[in-house]
Amino acid sequence: MKKLLNIIALVLAALMAQPASAQNKKLKVVTTLSYLQYVTQEVGGDKVDAVALANPKQDPHYVTPTPRMNQLATDADLFIENGLSLDMWAKNVLEASGNPSIQPGSPGHLVATINVPVKELPTEVSRAWGDIHPQGNPHVWLDPFNVRIIAGNIADRLKHIDPRNGDYYQKRFDDYKTTFDAAMFGEELVKALGKSGGDILTRKAKNNELSDWLKGKKLDGKLGGWMKKAERLNGMKIMSYHKTYIYFADRFGLQIAGELEEKPGIPPPPKHRDAVVEQIKREGIKVILNDNFYSREAADYVASRTGAKVVITYVDVGAVEAVDTYEKLITYLIEEIDQASS
Amino acid sequence: MEQLFYLPSTMLWPLAACLVLTGIHVYLGVHVIARKVIFVDLALAQIAALGTVVGVLLGYEVGKDANALYLYSLAFTIFGAFIFSVTRMRGEKVPHEAIIGIVYAVTFASTILVLSKSALGPQELDHIIKGELLWVQSHVVIKTALIYACVGLFHFIFRKKFMAISFDPEGAEASGINVRLWDFLFYMSFGFVITSSVAIAGVFLVFSYLVIPSVGAMLLSDRLSVRLTIGWIAGSIISFAGVKISYNTGLPTSPAIVVVLAAGLLVSGFYHYLKNSPAKLVALRNVGLAVLVVGIFVAGVFFFRKPEEDPFEHTLHLLASPLSTDRQAGLLNLEAFKDRKSDWIGPVIQELKDQDVQVRKAALQLIAKVRERSALPLILDRLNDHSDEVRLAAIQAIRILGDSAAAARLIENAAREQDPEMKINLLKAALELGNPNAIPSLIQVIKEGGVFAEDAYDALRGHVPLEFTKEEYGKVERWWREHREKLRWDEKTRIFSAQG
Fold it and tell me: Using CA atoms, how far apart are residues A177 and A155, in angstroms rounded to an integer?
C-alpha cells in the first residue's frame, strides 16, 4: 500500500513537473495577419506556435474581433501586429485579452514594421492630408525586402523573450534569409558574391542601381528569382482599385498610373472616374488590380470601356491555396500581372 | 444657359438610373407612407443582401455567378415579403413598424455572422449602404427599367386592390378582398424592385427616393394623382441637379443627390407653412428667424473649430511622437524650416540614437544636408550600427561633414568590415576626405580579385596621379611605398600628389 502511494506520489510529481520544464513548452505567438504568422513560424521553427487572427481572404483594414481572438491573445507570450494604422482592430483584442505581458510597450508586443522604410508619409504639414494616411501607406509586406526586415525584427524579439533558444532563432533567421535572397535574386547570383551577397544585392536594389551594377560586373546573366521574372514587368503601367500595391510596384519596376478610388473608402467623384478611363485609353494600360475583397463594379466598368483586364489579387498569405506561403504570394502576383498584360 | 444643362455622356447612365428609380419609388413611396412602414425597404434590402452573402458562402462568386446570386437574393426577398404580409395585425396591437425593425436588426446581424465566414467581409455591408451608382452600366439600367415597367404595369392593372389595401385595409377586407394575399403580392413586387435598386444605388439613396419626394408632395397636395405628378417631376429635376452638382464639384454622387432631395423637401415645407398660415407676414418672419437660428448655429460650430497648429510647432511635436513614422515625417518636414535650424538641430541629433532604423537614417540625411558638423561624433558612432542601411547613410554623411580624423575612423572600420562592398564604400569615403591610408587597403581588394576588385579599382582610379589598369595595381603600390610620407590631397583636382 505504501509502495503504491509512493508510486502515485512520484507520478504526480512528474506530472506536475512537466509544465515547468520549459524545453517542451512552445512559445505562443499571436499575429494579426497571416503573412506575419508565416514569417514567425519560419523563424521560430518548432520552438514557436504561431497563429493569425484575421481571415486572409478579408480586408485587413476591417476585422471584427471575436471572443476566440481574445482568448488566443490572453494565452499569448508574444503579440505581433503590422502597425501603421492598418490593423487598428488589434488594439481591441489587446485590451480585451487582459494579458499584461503583450500590451504595447512591453517585450511581448511587437510592431513588425519598425525599421521598414514607409512610403507616403504625410510630409505636407496640413490637416487635410494628415488624417487620411496618418502613418503612411501600410501595405509594406508586398515588397519582399521589407519582409526581410520584418523577419529580422521578429527574430530579434524572439531572441529577447526566449534567450535560451537565441542561437536557434538566429540560425533559423539566417537560413530563412538565405532562401529568401535566393528566391529574390536566384541562388547562383547570391553565391557568386560571397557571404554578404544577399545584403549587397539588397542594398543595390534598394538604391535602384542593381541592374547597372550587375552589367558592369557581367553578372546580369546570373540574375534569377523574382527579380528576373519581373524583368518583363519593368516600366509597365497598371491601375489598381486601392493603394495596395505601391511597394510591390516600386520593387518590381511597375508604374502605378493611378487608383480607381480617389480616397480610401470613399466613392470617387465622377470626374475622377472619367479621368481614369481616359488615362487608361491614352496610356494603353492593360491591367487593373482589384483586391479580392473589393467589389468589382468599378473595375468592371473601367474594363468594359477600355479593354483593360481585371486581375483579382490576394494580399495576404493563405487567402487561397495558390498563395499559401509568402513566396507563392509574390510569385502569384508577378505571374498574374505578366499573363494579363501579354 | 447651355452650360447649366450640360452633362457629359459618361454621366447619362447614372442619371438614367436615377430617373428609373424616381419613376418606381415615388409611386411605391405613396404606399409605404400610407401603410406607415417607412423602413420596410431597409429591411427588404437587408434581406436581399443576406441572400447574396449566403449564396457566396455556398460557393457562388461575385461577378462570375451574378444570376445565381440574384436568384438567391430574390428568393430571400420573397420570403421576407411573406413574413411582412402575415405579420400585419388587425388593430395594430403590435405596430407593423416594430416587426420591420426586428426583421431588419436580425437580418443585419445574420449578415454579419455569415460575412465573418465568407470572402466578402464587412465592406460588403458598406457596399449595400453606398451602392455603385457611378459605375452602373447601360445594360443594367435597361434591365432594371424593364423589370420596373413590369412591376408598374402589374400595379396599374390591379391599382384598385393595391390602393384599397394600403389606404383602407379594413374597408378592403369588408369588401371581400383577400388582404393577406394582396399584401404578399405587394411586398413581393416591392422586394423585386428593392433588390435591383439597392444593387445600383445603395440603401440610403433608395430610401431617400422612396420617402422624400412622397413626403414633399404630400405637403403640397392631398390628391393622389397630383402628388404623384409633383413627385415625379420634382424627383427628376432634383436627380439631374444632384448628378450635375456631383459632377461639377467632385462630390460623391449618391450622397449629393440625397442632400439635394432634402433641400427640395425644405422648400416644399416652407411653402406649405406659408400657404397654410393665416398671417402671412408673421409666418414669413418666423421663416426668417428659423434661417437666422440655423445660420448662427452653423457659424458657432465653425467658430469652435480646432485652431490650426503652427506648422513648425506641429513638426517639432512629430519628432517627439512615440510612433516612428511620425518621427520620420517630422524629419522630412524639417527640410522646409532650414532657416530655423538652431531651434531644431538639438532634437534631430538625438534622433541619431533612435530605435528605428529609418529614423536614424533620415536624421543622418537631414544633418548631412544642413551640414551640421557638431553632430560628427554621434555620426561616427553610427558606423557601428547593426543596420547596413544606417551604416551606408553614416558613410555618406561623413563624406560631406568629415575631416581627416573621421577618415581615420572610416579606415579603422574598413579593416573590421566583413561585407566587401561596404568596405569599399568606407575606403572610398576616407580617400575622398584626403586620407591616403585608404590606398593600400584598396590595392589589397584589387589584388584579391573577384567581383569587387572592379569597384575598388574604380574607387582608386582618378585619385592618384597615375594611369594604370586593374592588373597594373603593382604600379600604384610602388608609387605608394615611395611617397607615402609626403602625399597631399588637392581638394580641387581630387588627386593625391607627392609634395616636396
Answer: 11
